[in-house]
Amino acid sequence: MHIDSALPSNSGNLPTINVGGTYSSLVQFDFSALPAGTSGSSVSKATPFLWVNKIGTPGAIDIRTVTSA
User: Fold this and answer.
1) Distance CA 42, CA 45 (A)
2) Global pTM?
């Protein structure tokens, strides 16, 4: 699921995420498929992949961990 500052009413149903410029987005991962009793300390590595679809203006994006609501 993701939310996008440009589409605050979107509940994560769009196939793309806009970032950069005036766009800010958050991504939340669903860990319900993990076996029952699995804790964060049980996971040694997780690797998300990011593919770029289109670049409107060259630049950088920041990827950060959100640790609170």
Assistant:
1) 9
2) 0.53
